[in-house]
């Protein structure tokens, strides 16, 4: 039996039938007015065909079906310079044929929604077209990206295409890293950075065009920007606003932006065979590895893209694949493994774009970043385990966690599409067709509806937006979540009882950090330990990947790590010790090697720390050091993180104090064997259990001393039973 997608063309181009709409057809592009919501139905006809352990289920076909892959001329054969070759590549992108129409549409309309398939050239080309058309004469073109890796890699590409040095005419700005200069006219930045820029320049006066790119990703910051830039555009008729998206739900964007016209152009797409597994997979990582190896051994050449939830999973699969390949020796062709995730150092990021040597195969292990933000040429096979890491937030308890979650059908379609960009391809879904049709949601829920809003609420308050319930949200967050964040900001002292920003709140808003971290820094002034606290904040900001554990030296690595924990009251202090030891060696790389510490992470921490030090000056906090007074440091931590307090239970687990929930100390914590009675934690991560990451022991009386408005004696009642011996070994309560 065979299965065909009967409505594939309509599916790819939902604008194909649009009788009721007043449209303007320009060549193949459609400029659509008065858009309204419309359902695109999945009219699939099922016929199955058995195939190894996959079933082949459908074929995604493109608008412009092309049988043969246009051969790329090589530099030697043409004798052209690399720069000329790049110019030719630019002209081969689908968007190139619509350059004039697009520029005309931008000229005629202040706000334009742009829809074009991933890889068609929206992100790299539109800013250049605008520059060529003179829009940079009176201001910058800013282009936002939800992901920092995308901002870095795309700007690097555009700088190359324009023949300029990155950071000069073309630059990027991401949190803690500004690679722009006076000269910069095309600025790529994360959506979060534009939000921060708004705090200093509320009318975005230095910009002539703002492109909110990857709008379909609907990240929290993008959603907030929608409301803000819409308002700015009304006040500034000279500002052009482009909202660009890879998916078809553009009507929603159009509706939101006062029925702005939609400019959609067809991409180039080759058919993609989609295979499902016949039975659910017990372990998606093992299944992914097996599938990659099967492809490598059985399928014709072409690169493979594997979607994994996060860095940890990518590193595990990379290691496992390398071992298996080593085991197979010279029996198989060369397999080049390239990981890509947000924290990957930029030198290594570039590797995924390097052409695969002849006869070899490249396998890219990527997070969701490769779903729409980055296009890697030459991918012919996609392996989709069906998961991504998603934030989830419980507004009732205020708990936020990062979960490995099934993706949506929309994501699955985007992932499959990655296989058909430069030639016909194949997508292996590591889940069953039944799962796909019955269990996956149609669309991913916008982040604003499943995240802690404290940080953006603080930003909005400092922008002078007081009535948040009236803010122009495309999809409003649950009101409990808004209220919860107002409560938290109140508890942290950032807002007063009237919901107005306090002096502390104003200072906190200057830091590009979570309000709890900002509070910890602001309070360190009082405890005279800002020097130590910004080191801790910087170390917390680089994420969990400070140590490395080479396979053959795991014991040494673990010993090195435990050295920093010995006698400690917590992980925060251990982080401080690591930072200070490194500083004492004059930031030595050798020292990092000897201690199994990632030198790159440390350099980044140093960078972040320098910036935090600059911000201290800006909010007039003196750098003061109190390194012998560990209690002062711990009290500063408590002042920021008191809502994250947990108490040890008889069975060795913990219970959070407010909104009780069972949690555990993460095994990587220095306190995981110590089990102190009271702890505050930096964050919760749900893997096999709900784990507290980065934990510090606290005294319950501090909670009353520091947060009397939040905790009452009864919350910390065993504070009185001082006879309890201080727990040092595994606790028996
Ligand atoms: O934004 P959109 O998905 O429409 O496409 P794009 O990111 O502008 O990508 C257009 C082309 O540039 C693709 O063929 C990419 O492979 C290429 N590109 C690249 O080679 N290196 C990058 N860092 C980014 C894009
Ligand atoms: Mg793009």
From TrEMBL:
- Bilayer-crossing regions: none
Helicase C-terminal domain span: 288-464
Q: What class of enzyme is it?
A: hydrolase
Task: Name the reaction it catalyses.
Answer: ATP + H2O = ADP + phosphate + H(+)
Q: Could you list this entry's UniProt keywords, alphabetically sorted.
A: ATP-binding, Coiled coil, Helicase, Hydrolase, mRNA processing, mRNA splicing, Nucleotide-binding, Spliceosome
Q: Which residues form the Helicase ATP-binding domain?
A: 103-266
Q: Which residues lie in coiled coils?
A: 602-629
- Keyword Coiled coil belongs to the record: yes
A molecular function (GO) held by this record is: helicase activity
The EC designation for this entry is 3.6.4.13
Query: Carries keyword Lipid biosynthesis?
Result: no
* Name assigned to this protein: RNA helicase
Its taxonomic path starts at: Eukaryota, Viridiplantae, Streptophyta, Embryophyta, Tracheophyta
Q: Which residues of the full protein are shown?
A: 313 to 1045 of 1045
């Amino acid at each position: 039996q065979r299965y065909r997608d009967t409505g594939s063309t309509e599916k790819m181009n939902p604008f194909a039938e649009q009788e009721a709409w007043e449209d303007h057809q320009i060549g193949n592009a459609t400029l659509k007015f008065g858009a309204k919501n419309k359902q695109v139905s999945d009219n699939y006809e099922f016929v199955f065909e058995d195939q190894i352990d996959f079933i082949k289920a459908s074929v995604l076909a493109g608008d412009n079906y092309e049988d043969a892959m246009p051969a790329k001329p090589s530099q030697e054969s043409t004798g052209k310079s690399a720069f000329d070759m790049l110019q030719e590549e630019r002209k081969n992108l689908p968007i190139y044929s619509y350059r004039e129409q697009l520029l005309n549409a931008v000229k005629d309309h202040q706000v334009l929604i742009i829809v074009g398939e991933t890889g068609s050239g929206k992100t790299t080309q539109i800013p250049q077209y605008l520059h060529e058309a003179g829009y940079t004469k009176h201001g910058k073109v800013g282009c936002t990206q939800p992901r920092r890796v995308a901002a870095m890699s795309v700007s690097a590409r555009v700088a190359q295409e324009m023949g300029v040095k990155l950071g000069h005419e073309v630059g990027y700005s991401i949190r803690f890293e500004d690679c722009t200069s006076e000269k910069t006219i095309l600025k790529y930045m994360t959506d979060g950075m534009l939000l921060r820029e708004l705090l200093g320049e509320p009318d975005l006066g230095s910009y002539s065009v703002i492109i909110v790119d990857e709008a379909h990703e609907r990240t929290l910051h993008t959603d907030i920007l929608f409301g803000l830039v819409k308002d700015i555009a009304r006040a500034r008729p000279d500002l052009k606003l482009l909202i660009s998206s890879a998916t078809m739900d553009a009507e929603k964007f159009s509706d939101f932006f006062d029925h702005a016209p939609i400019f959609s152009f067809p991409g180039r797409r080759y058919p993609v065979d989609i295979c499902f597994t016949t039975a659910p997979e017990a372990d998606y990582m093992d299944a992914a590895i097996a599938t990659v190896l099967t492809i490598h051994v059985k399928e014709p050449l072409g690169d493979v893209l594997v979607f994994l939830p996060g860095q940890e999973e990518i590193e595990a699969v990379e290691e496992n694949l390398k071992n298996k390949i080593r085991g197979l020796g010279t029996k198989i062709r060369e397999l080049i493994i390239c990981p890509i995730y947000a924290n990957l150092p930029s030198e290594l990021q570039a590797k995924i774009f390097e052409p695969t040597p002849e006869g070899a195969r490249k396998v890219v292990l990527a997070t969701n970043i490769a779903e729409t933000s980055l296009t890697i040429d030459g991918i012919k096979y996609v392996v989709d385990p069906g998961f991504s890491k998603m934030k989830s937030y419980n507004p009732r308890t205020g708990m936020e966690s990062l979960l490995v979650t099934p993706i949506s059908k929309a994501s699955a379609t985007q992932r499959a599409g990655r296989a058909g960009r430069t030639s016909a391809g194949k997508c292996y879904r590591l889940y069953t067709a039944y799962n796909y049709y019955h269990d996956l949601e149609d669309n991913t829920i916008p982040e604003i509806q499943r995240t802690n809003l404290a940080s953006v609420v603080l930003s909005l308050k400092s922008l002078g937006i007081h009535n948040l319930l009236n803010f122009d949200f495309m999809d409003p967050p649950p009101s409990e979540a808004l209220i919860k964040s107002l409560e938290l900001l109140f508890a942290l002292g950032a807002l007063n009882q009237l919901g107005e920003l306090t002096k502390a709140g104003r200072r906190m808003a200057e830091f590009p950090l979570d309000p709890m971290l900002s509070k910890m820094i602001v309070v360190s002034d009082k405890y005279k330990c800002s020097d130590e606290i910004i080191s801790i904040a910087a170390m917390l900001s680089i994420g969990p990947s400070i140590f490395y554990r080479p396979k053959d030296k795991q014991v040494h690595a673990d010993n090195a790590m435990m050295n920093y924990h010995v006698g400690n009251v917590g992980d925060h202090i251990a982080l401080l010790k690591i930072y200070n030891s490194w500083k004492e060696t004059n930031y030595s790389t050798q020292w990092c090697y000897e201690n199994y510490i990632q030198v790159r992470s440390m350099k980044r921490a140093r960078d972040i720390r320098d910036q935090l030090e600059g911000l201290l000056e800006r909010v007039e906090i003196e750098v003061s050091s109190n390194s012998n007074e560990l209690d002062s440091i711990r009290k500063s931590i408590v002042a920021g993180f008191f809502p994250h307090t947990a108490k040890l239970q008889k069975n060795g687990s913990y219970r959070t104090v407010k909104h009780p929930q069972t949690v555990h100390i993460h095994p990587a914590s220095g306190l995981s064997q110590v089990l102190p009675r009271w702890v505050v934690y930096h964050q919760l991560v749900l893997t096999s259990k709900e784990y507290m990451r980065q934990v510090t022991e606290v005294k319950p009386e501090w909670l009353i001393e520091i947060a009397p408005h939040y905790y009452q004696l009864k919350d910390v009642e065993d504070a009185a039973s001082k006879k309890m011996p201080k727990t040092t070994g595994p606790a028996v309560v």
